[in-house]
Amino acid sequence: MMTESSFRTGPSSQPSFTELPSQAPHVPDHAPWMDLSAQISFLGLFEHLVQRIERLESRQESQHEEMMAYLYSVFPPPPPQP
Prior knowledge:
By secondary structure, this protein is an alpha+beta fold. Helices cover 52% and strands 15% of the residues.
C-alpha cells in the first residue's frame, strides 16, 4: 500500500510526520492466474537452486575426503602408544 507522508512543525517546535491515507485501494493490474504462474515459476527456480546446493555439498564432501586422504599420506598418524 502506498502512503504519502507530510511534514509539519508541531507546537513543541519538534517536527512531526503524519501519514496521509491512500488515494485508492490496491487493484492488481494483471489476471489472478499470473500470480499462480509466478509462484510456479518460483518453485521451479527454488527446485533448481536446491539441486545445485546438493551438488555443491556433494562435491565439497568428496573434496574433503580427498584432502584428508592426501593429508594422511603426507602426515601419517603417530603409532599408538603402549
